[in-house]
Amino acid sequence: MKNIIPNKLKKGDRVAFFAPSGKLKDGQLDLMIKACNALGLDYYIHPQCYSGGSYLAVSDEDKVLALHEMFQDKSILAIFCVRGGYGTMRYLDDIDYSIIKDNPKILMGMSDVTALQAAIYKKAGLVTYSGPMSMHFNNDFDFAVEQIKKVLIDGDGEILLNATDVLSEGIAEGKLIAGNLAMLSYLTGTEYDYDYTDSILMFEEVGEWKYSIDRFLQQLKMSGKLKKVNAIVVGENHYKENDIFDYTFNQMLENVTSGLNIPIAVGAKFGHLNKHLVLPVGQKVKLNLKKHKQSIILK
Question: How many domains does the chain have?
Fold first, then answer.
């Protein structure tokens, strides 16, 4: 299936806010609305954002209906997911992916949205964007706005990763797979999983015990995925406190990548902490990992 790269945004374009996983909390949209105003974008808050029970934002059926509506609405040029949590895997089977394929537009999110992005890429061929959600605008508003402007509006062809540790230098090309490590692991064996052949793999994780992270990494290795990738870039991970697991993250990573001879970097500016780059999931890229500079060139 040929990739579809959605059109960039321009001033006056309308962005829809969507809660694909958990229900929104009071105030979560405030800074995202401020960001749209700063970028000259119009916005629409889909009613499902504030509906539903105490955890999941409305029923699975209503989320699918909302997603279909936003893709079919010609006045909406982009869909910004507001928060993650849990829930996207519950309704992947119910999405009509032909609607998405026939009405391509920007969809941006991360965390639990990883599963939705994988499914959309696999079934519709649409490039989506792993990017900032509500927490990132709260933690570093200027960085989030700058990244949206550079990638989704200006169409800047280079993304600086600013990794803290380059474990193995090199240059690699391939389609970009980016998302949450747990979600990428959970997709294994499903029809929505990525083909990791000749890919640049970028992942992050938050709030897990280190043994769980090691288990996710071992699953990627044993499923044969890691030996197919051309490079690995890890974001800003955050672990449970008082973790007595013996290995550091770098040791766990070195264990599963031993013998691969590929470029590897850790600590790039994406994840659940303060900053999140806007990364085009599914697009072909060129990765340049050097000690003094790490970047992605969009192809």
Answer: 2
